[in-house]
Design a protein that fits this description.
159 residues; alpha+beta; 4-stranded mixed beta sheet; 7 helices
Length: 159
């Protein structure tokens, strides 16, 4: 990570502990996750104990302490989505990508996450693919979406 990028995030926020979540959101937007060295710098620059920085970073599911894949697939496992088959979607990604929720494929192409509720219960089961909501998802639709995402990456490499 280039230090200058973190400097731009911290500009105007130094010594302001109440800016912690905003700084972490900006850092994650920039890096895709929260690198350990950056968290140490954030702790020092904001004046927040490192243990508190980690406490916030681990509490919110929006933050990741591990590098994420190029394709982030988030499956809602809330009650409405579960009743409508979200567990089948989790099984689909387990079988297709051979990873568990919370993991990233070894090639760094896919990260799969589960969340308790995305707040779109009437449209469930819901899957979020790189920030785009996909409603009424089925295992077949999810398989095609993963295949398409993997194919796009392959086509881009061939070009």
């Amino acid at each position: 990570m280039a230090k200058i990028n973190l400097d731009s995030i911290l500009e105007g926020r130094r010594s302001q502990p109440h800016m912690l979540i905003e700084v972490l959101l900006d850092l994650q937007d920039q890096e895709g996750y929260l690198p350990e060295e950056a968290l140490k710098t954030v702790s020092k620059e904001l004046g927040v104990p490192l243990v508190d920085v980690y406490r916030v970073a681990r509490f919110y599911k929006a933050f990741s302490l591990k590098p994420r894949g190029k394709n982030v697939i988030t499956i809602c496992t809330g009650t409405a989505c579960h009743v409508r088959g979200s567990h089948l979607l989790v099984n689909q990604v387990r079988g297709q990508l051979n990873i568990e929720p919370g993991d990233t494929t070894p090639d760094g192409q896919f990260t799969v996450e589960c969340v308790n509720c995305l707040g779109a219960c009437a449209l469930g089961p819901i899957v979020v693919h790189n920030g785009s909501y996909c409603d009424h998802m089925t295992p077949g639709k999810l398989r095609k979406k993963i295949d398409k995402a993997a194919g796009k990456k392959k086509e881009a490499q061939d070009a």
